[in-house]
């Protein structure tokens, strides 16, 4: 558990600290504001397009429902970046810094953990489709997934709302921590939220690892069967005599795309949650740390937090490479020729033949 001298999950802005070891370092006040500014511009563009495209697609599968929720979370997260830029670069007024503590940072962490939960659900869905590729869906199952999505948003909103309401004290000086604005009940509630967020992350980390271990084993079996089937050395040729790619070669490209979810999860969320452990220890009074070590852990935490923010920029890769419905709608909207999609994805076509599990990953069905 992080102590009251830090700015942990849902506590608010983690920038304005009374700790002189980290208040005015260049990384916090210059480098990260520039990076977050770039991230805001790129993220706003990509997620704006993603939201516009996705909400023209009917929610015909569990996968699409989960992706739509991630799009909404990413858009909200992206709009918190300008407030963080102003706050970290010391250009924000006291009122704006209070807003960052009460609202902006709370929304940032809210959307982060919503994304983590839906990444877990996507992993379960991909695992189910790989192990049981011919199990379809129906209106009742889709309705249950929509209710589950609404329950997740409601639960986390209710969980973090007291952090907004109970952050109402007057700042003691121009240099204040977000914890200085919280009442005693607010500090206690923050500790509760912190524990819940730890459970969310570690539970979903285990879920993702288990699901993709099962997916890997199943895809290896599928690849082994394809290799055995093609061991006779037959070569497919087009009517003109030119050789064509064998079906199992197309499958292998799709196999790699399936692991995009795993890659984004580990790049964006795992480093931050591991870095928080030593950072928390450095900020408590239980274990003494010198100033330089505290600064190092602070910079490590801020660097991994930026990786978590990068999730809003990497998620569109998942939409594009794993969802044919998204690609088809995007290319139709941009009025690009049909061959553009296959050139960008590296596939022969968007209707690749192959196992139902792999095809499902391509079409979001």
From TrEMBL:
Keywords: Cell membrane, G-protein coupled receptor, Glycoprotein, Membrane, Receptor, Transducer, Transmembrane, Transmembrane helix. It is a multi-pass membrane protein. One of its GO terms (cellular component) is plasma membrane. GO terms for molecular function: G protein-coupled purinergic nucleotide receptor activity. InterPro entries: GPCR_Rhodpsn, GPCR_Rhodpsn_7TM. Pfam families: 7tm_1 (PF00001). Its main location: membrane. The chain crosses the membrane at residues 34-54, 66-86, 106-126, 147-166, 192-215, 254-274, 303-322. It is found in: Cell membrane. PROSITE patterns: G_PROTEIN_RECEP_F1_2. Residues 345-365 are annotated as: Disordered. Residues 46-319 form the G-protein coupled receptors family 1 profile domain. Gene3D superfamilies: Rhodopsin 7-helix transmembrane proteins. PANTHER family: P2Y PURINOCEPTOR 12 (PTHR24233:SF0), P2Y PURINOCEPTOR-RELATED G-PROTEIN COUPLED RECEPTOR (PTHR24233). This is G-protein coupled receptors family 1 profile domain-containing protein. The lineage of its organism: Eukaryota, Metazoa, Chordata, Craniata, Vertebrata.
